[in-house]
Amino acid sequence: MNKSTFALKGNIFYTPTPNQLVIHPQSYLVCENGLVAGIFEQLPEQYTNIPVEDHGNRLILPGLVDLHVHASQYAYRGLGMDMELLQWLESNAFPEESKFADLDYAKQAYSLFTQQLTESATTRACIFATLHRPATLLLTQLLEESGMRCYVGKVNMDRNCPDILQETTEESLAETRRWLEESKQFTKNKPMLTPRFTPTCTDELMAGLSQLQKEFNVPFQSHLSENIPEIEWVKELCPGTRFYGEAYSQFDLFGGNCPTVMAHCVWSDADERALMKQNGVFIAHCPQSNMNISSGIAPVKSYLLEGQKVGLGSDVAGGAHLSLFRAMTDAIQCSKLRWRLVDQNTPALTMPEALYMATKGGGELFGKVGSFEPGYAFDAIVMDDSDIPTTRTCNLAERLERVVYLSNGKPHAKYVQGEKLF
Ligand code: GUN
Ligand code: FE
């Protein structure tokens, strides 16, 4: 038997669809070559001699996927939230991100971020770095050493930002090409094209990135329809477009052959939604950020019902917390306010829907990730709820709810693609 074959034993949970929470009490989750081989009440004959890690009464869940997070903003999480997006970028994001020109600072900041992300329940993430190529490669190196499997983006910005953070179009494209070449040294963590958003990126830059996307066959991430003044600004900057998403789609950077994550989509109109659906664009719903910088309440339940691809993002530092459990509860609570205050015809999100978005919904960007169906990547977290006290005896579905709402977000054990991180 291959030595990369083993099993975890415990109470196993996953969501193959948004409406279906599957629970296997006291069962074996078998890993073969980094992939899920199956779930069994009794180990079948061919597995009788494999190593078993018995997690007793603990809960075993798919690793969580953070579809949108800014590693470079981790240092100021929880600070400066009394602003809206455009002022918040000027006052908080840009000054902090300019520090990453200094590789010593980048090492401190990215070591802290990588350590905290590794200790969390997140196994995969789509990460924004800054426009600095050396610092972005350093972050990728740190993630590589941690065992995480992420997409990392060197940010592009060639207009409307402070001088110290602005590249020329030529520099931006040349540095991006060099970064894509240099990123080939990594095996677990991969590059993702990351123009910040339309207000800071010229059409010439987008056209050049589109060529690089086709040449290197890499995925793409940016921000979309987050805040009303931002959307008005994009209308002025891109007079030929019918909606914000067209500022990306006109350069073939909006799904289809270009796997794409768009963060926020709070105010996407019917045409934008139709194109996202048609092209299979991933929506990264970031409820905590939407509340902190008062962007609005994204219609995420409607997105699920209309068949969009939806995952969850922490959007640190628009969001203050890296925990995707926190993002799940924020998403549910936000959807209740939307139901009560905005759209009485669309009910709130359920717990299975929130878990689905945090696992298989966002995981699909990475391939077969985010579920325990056979053939999926063996990304698993083991949660110990014995230190969340109650006088009640809870069934397994209730224990999952309590972990999501009440745990400190730190797993007891964590596996990525079959590799044990701790
Ligand atoms: N839009 C452009 N840049 C950013 C950013 O750093 N955070 C958020 N939340 N939205 C953005
Ligand atoms: Fe963001």
Structure commentary:
The protein contains 13 helices and 17 strands. By secondary structure, it is α/β, with parallel strands linked by helices. It folds into 2 domains: 6-63 and 370-420, Urease, subunit C, domain 1 (Roll), CATH 2.30.40.10; 64-366, Metal-dependent hydrolases (TIM Barrel). The chain has a 7-stranded mixed beta sheet. A 4-stranded parallel beta sheet has the order 5-6-7-9. A hairpin with a 2-residue loop joins strand 1 (6-17) and strand 2. The longest helix has 18 residues, at 324-341. It is globular. The two termini are 23 Å apart. The model has no long low-confidence stretch (mean pLDDT 98). It binds guanine and fe (iii) ion. Guanine is lined by residues 70, 85, 89, 93, 196-197, 223, 226, 289, 315, 318.
According to CATH, the fold-level topology of the largest domain is: TIM Barrel
Number of helices: 13
N→C terminal distance: 23 Å
Number of domains: 2
Taken as a percent bin, the fraction of beta residues is 15-25%
- The appropriate CATH architecture of the largest domain is Alpha-Beta Barrel
**Low-confidence spans: pLDDT under 50, at least 5 residues?**
none
Order the strands across the largest sheet as they lie in space.
3-2-1-4-15-16-17
Number of strands: 17
Mean pLDDT: 98
Alpha-carbon Rg, integer: 21 Å
Ligand identities: guanine, fe (iii) ion
CATH superfamily of the largest domain: Metal-dependent hydrolases
Oligomeric organization of the protein chains = single chain
CATH class category name of the largest domain:
Alpha Beta
String of helices and strands? EEEEEHHEHEEHEEHEHHEHEHHEHHEHEE
Major sheet characteristics: 7 strands, mixed
Shape label: globular
